[in-house]
Write a structure and sequence with these properties.
Length: about 100
């Protein structure tokens, strides 16, 4: 018998940065506070997106400023910006300096 894990869905409509961060944290499998490409891929797959491996790779490339292979604290703003621009997720506030 296979067991499936169910994740909370991303809130409908516009999403605040805090809601996005809380939603994304459920995919942090190792609990280190960072989001790896594999964890982001799992998150995107829960949204029923196509080509999640490619989108996760591109998102981590865009957000990972220190090139350690994961998106951590200071880089989360860059991930939000990527999700807003390229994944067409609606963010109601992007109050971080994203450049």
């Amino acid at each position: 018998m296979a067991f499936m894990r169910y994740y909370r869905a991303l809130p409908e409509g516009e999403t605040t940065v805090e809601e996005f961060r809380a939603w994304l944290s459920q995919f942090d499998a190792d609990g280190d506070g960072r989001i790896s490409r594999e964890e982001l891929e799992r998150a995107l797959r829960s949204l029923n997106l196509w080509f999640v491996w490619w989108k996760a790779r591109e998102a981590v490339r865009a957000a990972d400023a220190n090139r350690n292979g994961a998106v951590d604290g200071d880089e989360m703003g860059r991930l939000y910006a990527f999700a807003h621009k390229h994944l067409h997720l609606k963010m109601s506030q992007l109050d971080l300096d994203l450049e």
